[in-house]
Amino acid sequence: MRLQLKTSAVELTLDLRDTPTARAVFDAAPFEARAQTWGDEVYFETPVSAKLEADAKQVVDPGTVCFWTQGDALALPFGRTPISTDARPKLANPCNVLGTLKDFALLGKIKSGDKIKVERAS
């Protein structure tokens, strides 16, 4: 499963694992949201609600596609967040791990308030 994330500045592909939350987000596409940023993380609301999965993590590698259950949001960290204790992103809370994003450095071009469109990749 793959999703395309598009803004006026970037177009990225999210490679999703086969998890309940990843399937729910994939099935909900297409949808649009407004970007928010927190340190080197972009996040935005989705039309999906999910519970924490068994392998949820709070500290992840840059480029990990995460689902923040407390905000019904995709969280896309690409570097340190305000609560990081080393070079890795530390999310606000444990999040479901949905997959990976190869060109994660491009997330730095997305600004808070930017319109994001999420579609299924062909």
Secondary structure elements and pairings:
Layout: E1 2-6, E2 11-16, H1 20-28, E3 31-34, E4 36-37, E5 41-45, E6 57-59, E7 64-68, E8 73-77, E9 90-101, E10 115-120
Antiparallel strand pairs: 1-2, 1-10, 2-9, 3-10, 4-5, 5-8, 6-9, 7-8, 7-9
Outline the structure in words.
The chain is mostly beta strands and 122 residues long. The protein has one helix and ten strands, in the order ββαββββββββ. It has one helix at residues 20-28, and strands at 2-6, 11-16, 31-34, 36-37, 41-45, 57-59, 64-68, 73-77, 90-101, 115-120. The longest helix has 9 residues, at 20-28. It is globular, with a radius of gyration of 13 Å. The mean pLDDT is 96.
Keywords:
single chain, mainly beta, 10-stranded antiparallel sheet, 1 helix, about 5% helix, about 120 residues
Secondary structural class: mainly beta
Which sequence of SSEs, written as H and E, runs from N to C?
EEHEEEEEEEE
Helix share bin: under 10%
Task: Summarize the biggest pleated sheet.
Answer: 10 strands, antiparallel
Rounded to an integer in angstroms, the radius of gyration calculated over CA atoms is 13 Å
* Total DSSP E strands: 10
Instruction: Determine the N-to-C terminus distance.
Output: 10 Å
Instruction: Sum up the overall morphology in one term.
Output: globular
| Mean pLDDT across residues | 96
Any low-confidence stretches, pLDDT <50, length ≥5?
A: none
Strand content: 35-45%
Number of helices: 1
